[in-house]
């Protein structure tokens, strides 16, 4: 197991290295002028000097890597001039985390609930209704929901504020109220994904032989569904729920933009459009770590949750 | 009601709703099971054996619709019973062993717990007592080191061991009726006979009534008292083991017997293969469903369904060949030869 983890971590580091290098290169290829058109020549010179922008690209790359490996991610150039990139990101995480936590708190139970209902009522009207909602929520991107919610509930009906309330530092009622719409917009996709998955897994479990045996033991349909079928379908469900926890940190670029939420998502958009090289690379690096870590955690958690892998020593027996 | 009958199925008809139409899986099945006896149901794949016992245990899938019929367990019709009431019966009186031991245990629950569940569901006794009884059952079905195995998961057991666990679970409730749906098909030959012996021992010790489904006629001769031969959702012949093996009447039974290898079949002896396949049950054929594959089929076989003709008190067959006006065809020579040989052998031993 330890050996396996070490192998995985090494592979992860290599992947990260490749990602960072690619980021570095692509960012430079995006057209845009860091200094800004019409800036004084002295300013331009000073900036180029400070950030080594005139060095040949390979040289810049080496310096960049050197700094990166000492965990010096550089400074933000244009978005938050001269603030260390690391601090900027850390500053943005709490708000994003907060919103996503709220979203997850409703996403997981609702997704599981709808999934169970749909599987139990498979091919009945309830299931069809849920399936239509799922298709809708999966295929319509979250920014459309965000825009629609904002238009109807905030703009037309005026029930909610248009943007996130930022004045209050603590978690006041007004702030909570203003979070409702973005949290909803963030949740639809996740609920639909979990529902779809849960429905498929549970339906399969319901039709398995072990369900027949548990009924044969004298368990009622309800009892064997709860004790065996649902239990079994939770295992594959981890596959999608764990990454959702990791994405708590990530946030959504578009939803954050629409509701004026100064979180990680919005930071990403801003840094790219401002050609803020170091910030962009660092943000993308941050995202990469999150997703690689979540893949790793999913794999490892399987080994903990599923006895076939935990005891069977990694080989699947079926 | 006949006190001696633990189970009686009367004129059962059921179909499955599918996207391509209604599959008429069971078409008028009639049979009964006496206390303490073993009834074998034989027939090729898809003849409706599993569906019949799923109906008897009310474990039919959701798309099954029972059109008519009665299923009497100890004189009570079980079809109108609700899930809760029948679950109670299933947990206490009726037990099942399935076709596929590899997948009939919950893959993520410990073996011991799965056996205990069958004991605890009846709400008698404490957890500790249940655990003790589970261990005892594991010992009874021949699991070595049950204390150690108790906390293991199904994937750590071999197929034969898993089937033993399934049998232990089936016996957990001290059932009166044990239904085995091809309990040995998924196992290799040596394990098969061990499991069969185990089931036979358990039946003798506990005086169980058993329904034994199989398509292996060798197994039938070994375990059964009476035999039902099933074809395309109907029972076409029923009789004692002797009736069916030594005096078969239905052409389908002939083909089944002729296609069965016996111990003294030498390699030169040809086994008969039943030509064709079962009719598509979306559109059940008119007349005798076996007619299209029957070398001896007469005109009437394609037009009218044969009723059950009585041959003796224990022996019935649904074939027009038993009609008084039918030509006397008799058992095919090859089969006749084999039966005679077997009878001679039995007489000498
Ligand atoms: N859920 C279902 N939906 C539609 N048709 C079904 C369903 N279950 C069974 N059938 C049909 O019912 C018929 C009888 O099936 P059954 O499983 O009873 O066969 P069997 O005699 O047990 O065969 P085997 O020896 O292979 O187990 C088959 O034609 C099958 O296609
Ligand atoms: Mg079957």
Structure description:
The complex is a heterodimer of chains A (318) and B (349). Chain A has 318 residues and is mostly helical. Helices cover 74% and strands 0% of the residues of chain A. In chain A, helix 5 (125-139) packs across helix 7 and helix 8 crosses helix 9 (221-246). The model of chain A is unreliable at 314-318 (pLDDT under 50). Chain B has a domain at 247-348. Chain B is 33% helix and 22% strand. Chain B has helices at 49-56, 83-92, 111-120, 127-140, 146-149, 159-171, 189-206, 217-223, 241-246, 251-258, 333-348, and strands at 5-18, 21-34, 38-42, 64-73, 76-77, 94-97, 177-181, 209-213, 226-231, 234-240, 309-310, 316-317. In chain B, the strands form two sheets. In chain B, strands 6-7-8-3-9-10-12-11 form an eight-stranded mixed sheet, sandwiched between helices. Chain B has a four-stranded antiparallel sheet with strand order 2-1-4-5, with helices on one face. In chain B, strand 7 (177-181), helix 7 (189-206) and strand 8 form a beta-alpha-beta unit. Chain B is globular, with a radius of gyration of 21 Å. Residues 49-50, 99, 181-182 of chain B line the site of magnesium ion.
Task: Summarize, please.
The complex is a heterodimer of chains A (318) and B (349). Chain A has helices at 2-29, 41-50, 57-69, 85-120, 125-139, 142-156, 173-206, 209-216, 221-246, 253-258, 264-273, 277-305, 307-310. Chain A has 13 helices and no strands.
Q: Say which CATH homologous superfamily of the domain at 93-276 in chain A is assigned.
A: MetI-like
Return the CATH topology of the domain at 93-276 in chain A.
MetI-like fold
- Summing up helix and strand content along with how strands pair, one would put the structural category of chain A as mainly alpha
Number of helices of chain A: 13
The overall pLDDT of chain B, averaged over residues, is 87
End-to-end gap of chain B: 41 Å
Helix/strand structural class of chain B: alpha/beta
Strand content of chain A: under 5%
Tell me the greatest interface.
Answer: A-B, 28 and 35 residues
Coarse shape of chain B? globular
Instruction: Estimate percent helicity of chain B.
Output: 25-40%
Spans where pLDDT lies below 50 across 5 or more residues of chain B: none
How would you name the oligomeric state of the polypeptide chains in this document?
heterodimer
List the helices and strands of chain A in order: HHHHHHHHHHHHH
- In what order do the strands lie side by side in the largest sheet of chain B? 6-7-8-3-9-10-12-11
CATH-defined architecture of the domain at 93-276 in chain A: Orthogonal Bundle
Strand content of chain B: 15-25%
N- and C-termini, Cα separation of chain A: 21 Å
Report the biggest beta sheet of chain A as strand number plus sense, adding barrel if it closes. none
User: How many beta strands in the DSSP annotation of chain A?
Assistant: 0
């Amino acid at each position: 197991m330890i050996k396996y983890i070490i192998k995985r971590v090494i592979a992860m580091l290599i992947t990260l290295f490749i990602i960072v290098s690619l980021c570095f290169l692509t960012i430079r290829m995006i057209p845009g002028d860091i200094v800004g058109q019409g800036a004084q020549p002295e300013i331009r010179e000073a900036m180029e000097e400070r950030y080594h922008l005139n060095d040949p690209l390979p040289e810049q790359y080496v310096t960049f890597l050197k700094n990166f490996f000492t965990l010096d991610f550089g400074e933000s150039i244009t978005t938050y001039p001269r603030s260390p990139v690391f601090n900027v990101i850390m500053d943005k995480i709490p708000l994003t985390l907060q919103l996503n936590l709220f979203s997850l708190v409703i996403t997981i139970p609702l997704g599981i609930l709808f999934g169970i209902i749909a599987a139990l009522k498979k091919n009945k009207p309830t299931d069809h209704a849920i399936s239509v909602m799922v298709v809708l929520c999966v295929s319509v991107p979250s920014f459309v929901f965000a825009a629609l919610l904002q238009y109807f509930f905030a703009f037309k009906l005026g029930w909610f504020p248009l943007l996130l309330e930022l004045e209050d530092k603590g978690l006041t009622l007004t702030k909570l109220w203003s979070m409702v719409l973005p949290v909803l917009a963030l949740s639809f996709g996740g609920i639909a994904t979990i529902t779809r998955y849960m429905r498929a897994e549970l339906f399969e479990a319901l039709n398995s032989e072990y369900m027949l045996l548990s009924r044969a033991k004298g368990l009622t349909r309800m009892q064997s569904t709860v004790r065996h079928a649902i239990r079994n379908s939770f295992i594959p469900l981890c596959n999608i729920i764990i990454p959702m926890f990791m994405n708590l940190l990530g946030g959504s670029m578009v939803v954050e933009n629409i509701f004026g939420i100064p979180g990680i998502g919005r930071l990403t958009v801003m840094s790219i459009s401002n050609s803020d090289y170091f910030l962009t690379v660092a943000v993308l690096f941050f995202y990469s770590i999150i997703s690689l870590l979540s893949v790793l955690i999913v794999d490892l958690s399987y080994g903990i949750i599923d006895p076939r892998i935990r005891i069977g020593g990694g080989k699947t027996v079926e | 009601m006949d006190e001696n009958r633990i189970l009686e199925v009367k004129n059962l008809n059921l179909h499955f709703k599918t996207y391509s139409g209604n599959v008429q899986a069971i078409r008028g099945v009639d049979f009964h099971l006496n206390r303490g006896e073993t009834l074998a149901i034989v027939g090729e794949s898809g003849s409706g054996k599993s569906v019949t016992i799923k109906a008897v245990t009310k474990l039919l899938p959701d798309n099954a619709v029972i059109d008519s019929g009665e299923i009497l367990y100890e004189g009570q019709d079980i079809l109108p019973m609700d899930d809760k009431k029948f679950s109670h019966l299933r947990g206490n009186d009726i037990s099942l062993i399935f076709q596929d031991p590899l997948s009939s245990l919950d893959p993520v629950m410990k073996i011991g717990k799965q056996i205990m569940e069958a004991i605890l569901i009846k709400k008698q006794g404490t957890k500790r007592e249940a655990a003790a009884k589970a261990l005892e059952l594991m010992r009874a079905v021949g699991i070595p080191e049950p204390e150690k195995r108790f906390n293991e998961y199904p994937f750590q057991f071999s197929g034969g061991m898993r089937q033993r666990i399934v049998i232990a679970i089936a016996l957990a409730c001290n059932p009166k009726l044990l239904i085995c749906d091809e309990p040995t098909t998924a196992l290799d030959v040596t394990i098969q006979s061990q499991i069969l012996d185990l089931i036979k021992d358990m039946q003798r010790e506990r005086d169980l009534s058993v329904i034994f489904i199989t398509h292996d006629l060798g197994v039938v001769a070994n375990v059964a008292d009476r035999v039902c031969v099933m074809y395309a959702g109907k029972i076409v012949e029923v009789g004692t083991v002797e009736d069916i093996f030594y005096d078969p009447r239905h052409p389908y039974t002939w083909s089944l017997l002729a296609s069965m290898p016996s111990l003294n079949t030498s390699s030169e002896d040809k086994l008969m293969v039943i030509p064709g396949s079962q009719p598509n049950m979306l559109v059940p054929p008119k007349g005798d469903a076996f007619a299209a594959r029957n070398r001896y089929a007469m005109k009437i076989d394609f037009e009218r369904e044969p009723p059950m003709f009585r041959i003796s008190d224990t022996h019935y067959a649904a074939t027009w060949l038993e009609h008084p006006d039918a030509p006397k065809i008799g058992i095919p020579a090859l089969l006749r030869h084999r039966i005679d040989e077997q009878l001679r052998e039995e007489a000498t031993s």
